[in-house]
Design brief:
By secondary structure, the protein is α+β, with helices and mostly antiparallel strands. Helix content is 65%, strand content 10%. β2 and β3 form a beta hairpin.
């Protein structure tokens, strides 16, 4: 690719006005069908987004179906959701009858099983999306079923919580590498060699924020108490009002500051992991800054709040266009060497991510 082609490798060719009829129609049909149409709505939305996304000289194509997503969701509920619900009632019964140790042991085992299944869900969701995404008639996928990744997700998530959570960045980056290194597109494997170092400083800021705010709150409270010495004591009603005001203000400030720092961390995280991802001779870059992330998240929040929830139909559109407009690709695609992927195509969609509300990307 030339320099101009590199800068324009990814392009979204539509706008929200053209997407709006699809979004509103999907919303109406989901309401009429009591949510059953959700899977076909998601498929219709993806088909639109993919078809309006151009990579180099051709558009993407989404070939997944709503029925695949529905089957995946139903299987997740039957194979895992129902047993978990039954076990929860069983644990309560054991605890009531005095078998607390047994209930605790089963509960811990259930938690480990849940982590394992979530790991498989994340892996298979990415595999499914790649297998249904076509470019020039070529699709992606993976020969792995995700069982090994499920175990990795389990133990790396647990280890990531060690050292008071300071190993979380290592867990996130290593799992990203393992998942993408198992994927391919056509005959070309993905390779990911993301590093922990470039994102750790941002995570440390995210990690220390609650401690810093707690110390700051203690200092301000002490200064306020010291300044009140010698003054007329407040009435019980005034004291109660002051406590409520300080508590609510601190609560809101905590989540605002914590959320902003989280965006700063994820900005560095995605820049690092995507910049270390390659596909054959192609390398990638993600250019979104912390300010770009803030505009995306805060804009979506305002959109949903001020439309009384109706604006939720545009959130997926905003997220997709955000990633596409900040993606860059460098290198060369050898069209003459592209052949169809020989990886196995999964038969159903993202059931576990839907059930547990976890994403593929």
């Amino acid at each position: 690719m030339t320099t101009d082609q590199q800068q324009e490798a990814f392009e979204f060719t539509s706008d929200w006005r053209q997407f709006a009829p699809i979004g509103f129609t999907n919303l109406l049909l989901c309401i009429v069908t009591l949510g059953i149409y959700t899977f076909w709505a998601r498929t219709r939305e993806r088909r639109y987004l993919w078809s309006n996304t151009r990579f180099i000289d051709d558009r993407l194509e989404w070939t997944g179906t709503g029925l695949e997503l529905l089957i995946g969701y139903v299987l997740a509920i039957i194979l895992f959701g129902v047993p978990v619900a039954v076990l929860q009632f069983g644990l309560q019964s054991l605890a009531i009858r005095g078998y607390g140790a047994a209930a605790a042991g089963i509960g811990v085992t259930l938690y480990f099983a849940l982590l394992y299944m979530i790991g498989i869900a994340i892996f298979r969701a990415l595999r499914y999306r790649l297998s249904r995404s076509y470019w020039r008639g070529i699709r992606g996928g993976s020969d792995s079923q995700g069982f090994g990744f499920g175990f990795s997700y389990l133990w790396r998530t647990i280890v990531g919580a060690f050292a008071f959570g300071l190993l979380v960045p290592w867990s996130m980056v290593s799992l990203w590498n393992q998942r993408w290194n198992a994927m391919s597109f056509g005959p070309m494997p993905f390779e990911s060699n993301a590093r922990v170092g470039p994102v750790f400083a941002r995570y440390l800021l995210f990690y220390l924020a609650p401690i810093i705010m707690l110390v700051l709150f203690g200092v301000l409270a002490f200064l306020g108490f010291a300044g009140a010495i010698g003054q007329v004591a407040p009435t019980p009603q005034q004291l109660q009002q002051n406590v409520i005001f300080i508590a609510v203000g601190t609560y809101l400030l905590f989540f605002v500051v914590f959320g902003l720092i989280a965006l700063v961390f994820y900005s560095a995280y995605f820049r690092e992991v995507i910049s270390q991802l390659t596909l054959g001779d192609l390398s990638f870059e993600f250019t979104a800054t912390s300010w770009d992330w803030f505009k995306l998240v805060f804009g979506s929040l305002l959109l949903v709040v001020f439309t009384l929830g109706i604006g939720q139909i545009f959130v997926g559109y905003r997220n997709w266009t955000f990633f596409i407009r900040h993606m860059r690709a460098y290198g060369e695609v050898r069209i003459d060497t592209l052949t169809q992927s020989a990886t196995r195509e999964p038969g159903q969609g993202e059931g576990l991510p839907d059930a547990f509300d976890v994403g593929a990307f």
